[in-house]
Amino acid sequence: MATRNFGAPIRRNEDKRLLSGQALFVDDVELPGMLYAAFLRSNVAHAAIRSIDVTAARARAGVVAVYTAADLGAYWAPGPLLVPPPPIAGIVFNQRTQVPLAKDKVRHVGEPLAVVLAQSRYLAEDALADIVVELDPLPVVVDLEKALADTSSRVHDDVRGNVAAHVHQGRGNYAAARARAEHIISRRFHYDHGASSPIETRGIIANWDGRANQLTVWDTTQAPVFLRNGLAAMLGLSERQVRVIAPFVGGGFGPKIMLFYPEEVVIPWAAMQLNRPVKWIEDRLEHFFATTQERGQTHDAEIALTRDGRILGIKDVFLHDTGAYNPYGLTVPINSQCTLLGPYVIPNYDSTFTAIFTNKPIVTPYRGAGRQHGVFVMERLLDIAAHELGIDRAEIRRRNFIPPDAFPYNNEIIYQDFAPLSYDSGNYAPVLDKALEMIGYRRFLAEEQPRLRAQGRHVGIGIVCYVEGTGIGPYEGAKIQVQANGKVSLATGIGTQGQGHFTVFAQIAADQLGVEVGDVDVVTGDTDQFYWGAGTFASRGAVVAGNAVNEAAKVVRQKILTLAAEHFECAEEDLEIANGQVSVVGVPGQAVTLGALALKANPMRGAVRPGTEPGLESTQYFGPPGGATAAGAHAMIVEVDPQTFTLEVRKYVVVHDCGTVINPLILAGQIHGGVAQGIGNAFYEQLVFDEEGQLLNASLADYLLPTALEVPRMEIGHTVTPSPLNPLGIKGAGEAGAIPVGPLFAQAIEDALGLLQQNIELNEIPLSPNRLFELTTKRR
Amino acid sequence: MSGRSVATDAYDTEAHAITVTVNGTPYRRQVEARMLLSDFLRHDLLLAGTHVGCEHGVCGACTVMFDGAAVRSCLMFAAQADGHTILTVEGLAPDREHLHPLQEAMRECHGLQCGYCTPGILMTMKAFLDETAAPDEAQIREALSGNLCRCTGYQHIVEAMQLAAQRLRK
Fold it and tell me: ipTM of this complex > 0.90?
């Protein structure tokens, strides 16, 4: 295969539309007769519903309908469990999924109670104030440890101790490893993750065409195919009657893979009831409650080591906040449990977690999806070990790396894709070496830091490592078709939220088919264009759909060659595909365009040979045997103002190994954006709930997303260890940037302020100037 | 959410006649007093390129140029635009075939991913570069700091602005 485009920093096909304001986002859809929805949401976290009176709202001018749970009748049902618990022995899992409109009880602030449909969004929101709700408040479950007590209030009346799940996994024998250890470190760690906060909130538009018996839904989802299948089942339609379109989506980062949100259940139903198109667009305040988020875990972890810093084993017991419902199963805490192991040999591992229902919004994966929590525990344990054993921070990591000849490397526990956590490939020392070289680690510690310290400045360095399981199954597909105008049409079932799919998939197809990248027209996220698929999550789009594109393009290439060989009456070996045409090598003027061949492949008259398929077209699917494990190291030099505890990141380096690279420009963008979200998580973003389950900072003025002033310039390096699990050798890269930033900040800030020398450790994320002040002055 | 709506009908529901010039085209419309400028542009004039991200003036996605200055259209009422001139992202490019140098630089530098914040960033930076022909990186970052982007980490946007500024000076 020619590698003209694959691997090149090609500019994006989709940009012209996005830059000129011509790209279609969900809220841009306007239909005649459209109604606008507004949801009345609970303003308390836990209460029994005594009554909801919508009489006045229904009477308001401009209001067409108001519905509560009672109006939904038999349609009312708890949502599906998206991810069943993995096959782990002894697992406890209590499934409690979200409901379309609260019926007897509300379980978190923002849970919807009623929906108003009116002639404008303004009128719909006016009518919310007409609804009279009587709630009997119940004691609120917020704190994870208190939630476990027998005496605690219960989020779900029949779930004792609010236990959503209890899972133990391990390998080897930790107790035996501990017994022979020369050094043991035990600590408690808190890691809190936040709200994904895409700049486009969620939205859904449903249009029921009664004449065609067809429902069309525009949704900001990352999983259009499953949304279609689920809607069809709920509404008593066949899948072919439902078309879901995820057009341009303004950022997803995980929570847009969640379904079925209550609004996704209610809006299509209302459209069918009223026989009119209905639009609902989430506002920013709603986004903080109604869209899923990630939150906290508390880990009690212990590491057993030899004197020279080799890990003998790790024991970890942690609590995970799953929120009021658990529709996404155990993906987040299982990721924490698995990703903790990182790039290291950990012969003995004993990990137990309890997932707990609380009266807070639902937790589902957000970029990193629990991996951050595990990586934080591992990297912090190594930092403390390095300090206590007098070993260099980089060196203790290097000593414990899985050696390059040990792959595939089986960690002997079950991963989120239900398969054993096996690393397909990796070579970690070169990643670390490159990061150390790029950041100037030795020179900084030997020369710069002493010099700056002598000037009274507080400058520190950090270095952390991680792996990321990416590109998991089950499968994706792609359909490729050469059009009569010579352009290539490419459709896949995954949705896209900015990852550059319109370009990277085009690059793969263009190389096989000898056309310009700009001549490949990619469609994603329209179930009428491509029927099958799973969705965009777990850093899998490029890996799984990308390989499906490659397979489909190879088949179309063969069809082109076969047809052209017939056309020229020559051998296929004598043909060359390039520049949108097929030519006979060495015979000038003997060429036919792909468009002409496409026409020829669909004859209007005459006979064809038995078995002939029309068109230059193929649909192929790809399902990897397992996930592809990417790896990386981040390093940072930071200066801390010891008075204000504000930070200045002086240098930030990422070295990443995600196998072969399709488009380095797009990859850099993914890494930059991931790091920016990691920085937000590490130092700026915290969801602050009070003891009544109220979120105290539910606005972008108070929940601080990093701006161009907080995100530093980054330098990126790559190493390449191709994945043996897919023909293109690629691994996912979508989440990696975000994963290790928390421990990096903790380590570098500790170093800058010399905290370990004062017996102060930063064992929690997020940090902030305020929190640093508290943590460092408490001990003085 | 429930807390955001007004409790009574005590608002001004009367239609106000406004004349506003958007991207060189004059429009005469009747608008309710409370109609936000962002909603007016998007849903009345169908200029949906201006995006809405937070509706409380923080994210900057809805930024348009109002008599040459960058403003957040979610913090203004349509009625306030009466007699004024607005430029939105749809009016930035010279014609259908070509992009404005700012747009061109954003594409070259991969300054956008999902593209949702992009129109607001383009309008903010247009106003900024109109006033600051030769900005350094710190000035660009400062000017950009009122626009939130959740995808790019800003680095490629900063590079795009440096490139655009350089080209616009020529």
Answer: yes
